[in-house]
Amino acid sequence: MKKVRTPLFPTYAQAAALMKASTGTPPKAVRDMITAIHDQTGTPQNPVDWSDPDTWIIERLQGDHEALALKIWQTDGHVMNPRHSYGSWMFINNYALMEADGEGRWQPSERGEKFLKGDEATLRQVDDEEGLLAVLELLSGFEMAKRSDLLPEWMSYLHKVSNFASESSCKTTLHQRLSNLVDRGLVERQGNRYQISPTGLSWLKGSLPERPDDPRKAIIDGVNRYNQQQKQQLRDYLGKMDPYQFEALIGELLRTMGYEDVEVTKASGDKGVDVVGSVQVGITTITEVVQVKRQQGSITRPVVDQLRGALPYHKAIRGTLITLGKFASSCEQAALFPGAAPITLIDGERLIEMLIENQVGIRKSRPVELLELDTSTFEVSEEMAT
User: Which residues of 7-29 are buried (b: 16+ CB within 10 A; e: fewer)?
Assistant: First the structure.
């Protein structure tokens, strides 16, 4: 049986919401509602704002279609925008999670009841058949990974087990499954990077069959431990640096990232600004100012306000705060205050990631080549021989 069968793959919460909302409804009525939504294309003069279901459902649908769409939207705290019901519809049918009763109305099947209750065996089986376990296994070999880091091995996996072949379809299936895993807390996302969570590692371990010792796993585990040690050494070194050296390091980071005219300001008279640089945004070059805080504790809102107040002095339209510590929640609110110049907040964890990504203060060694048997070559040879 082929794996990774469901395109437009939903989160399990979305599928569960559709199942609950459509219970007691003929499956044809659900399909007709999906078609009615799909037909709402809108026009340039009257576009559809799909982000606001409370509005578009009432404006665009009528009768039973409107009632069912509202019910889907209101189930389980708005986890399912009815606009995206088709993916859940396909998923539900692929796994026979709903079935028609004697009156032709949809009811959860035995498997569907287990799915709704979060039965581990049921979820693990679906995870395996839809490639989610494969994604977790790929992520377990990285500390943090972008989708592009996972894509080559994910494509190789899909070519072996599924009908997905094009790069675009492989990218889409990977993105959807990562979204599912993030929603369930099995994967953590930071910006455009993903990391398997402790819960995800436990889930993966409990889902995989017992295997003989795999030397590749030992290599990966060893590399991860070594990289963690190097990251900790980098963090410790940054914490002990002279403040001005630390500011100079941030200046070098900006240059590596493509900033021009980077200047580390003097110790006084800088209005709270430590580094100034210009960066190309689209077709416009803008000036950005950076304030660096080497402290390990939490930064509070007055620091954000101080940096924003210094922007006109440097003719800058945005600023960045960088710290080895963390930011108080009041900082996050102030950083993107409506109508005010934006302030980007970079805490210690994100700074470490940026230094590694741009190889400033740390470098990536040459990768190790691993040989792997490709049995598909022998299968082709056998076919030609017969």
Answer: eebbbbebbbbbbebbeebebeb
- The Cα-based distances of 209 to 5, 128, 213 in angstroms read 22, 11, 12
Residues 190-195: contacts with CB within 8 Å, 24+ apart? 190/144, 190/349, 190/350, 190/353, 191/350, 192/146, 192/147, 193/144, 193/145, 193/146, 193/353, 194/139, 194/144, 194/145, 194/146, 194/147, 194/150, 195/139, 195/142, 195/143, 195/144, 195/145
Q: Which phi and psi angles does 100 have, rounded to 5°?
A: -80, 135
DSSP codes, 99-133: EE-TTS-EEE-HHHHHHHTT-HHHHHHHHHHTTHH
Residue 204: what are its φ and ψ, rounded to 5°?
-65, -45
Q: Give the separation between CA 220 and CA 225, rounded to whole angstroms.
A: 9
* Reported pTM: 0.66
Distance of CA 168 to the CA centre of its chain: 17
Long-range contacts of 106-112 (CB under 8 A, 24+ apart): 106/22, 106/23, 106/24, 106/25, 106/26, 106/27, 106/30, 107/23, 107/24, 108/19, 108/23, 112/19
User: Hey, what amino acid is at 251?
Assistant: G
- Give the C-alpha separation, 104 to 106, whole Å: 7
Burial of 181-197, coded b for 16+ CB within 10 Å and e otherwise, reads bbebebbbeeeebbebb
CA distances to 11, 20, 125 from 97, rounded to whole Å, are: 15, 11, 13
373: tokens are 């048997």
DSSP class of 140: T
Helix (H, G, I), strand (E, B) or coil at 202: helix
HSE-up of residue 31 (Cα within 13 Å, Cβ side): 8
For 2, 91, 121, 177, 274, the CA distances from 128, given in Å and listed in that order, are: 11, 14, 11, 12, 51
CB under 8 Å to 382, separation ≥6 — which residues? none
> Quick check: 231 and 352 in contact, CB under 8 A?
yes
Q: What is the pLDDT of residues 366-376, one digit of tens each?
A: 666 667 666 65
Contact between 177 and 12 under an 8 Å Cβ cutoff? The reply is no
Q: Rounded CA gap, 90 and 79, in Å?
A: 17
Model pLDDT for residues 197-241, shown as the tens digit of each residue: 999 988 988 876 655 566 766 776 777 788 888 888 999 999 888
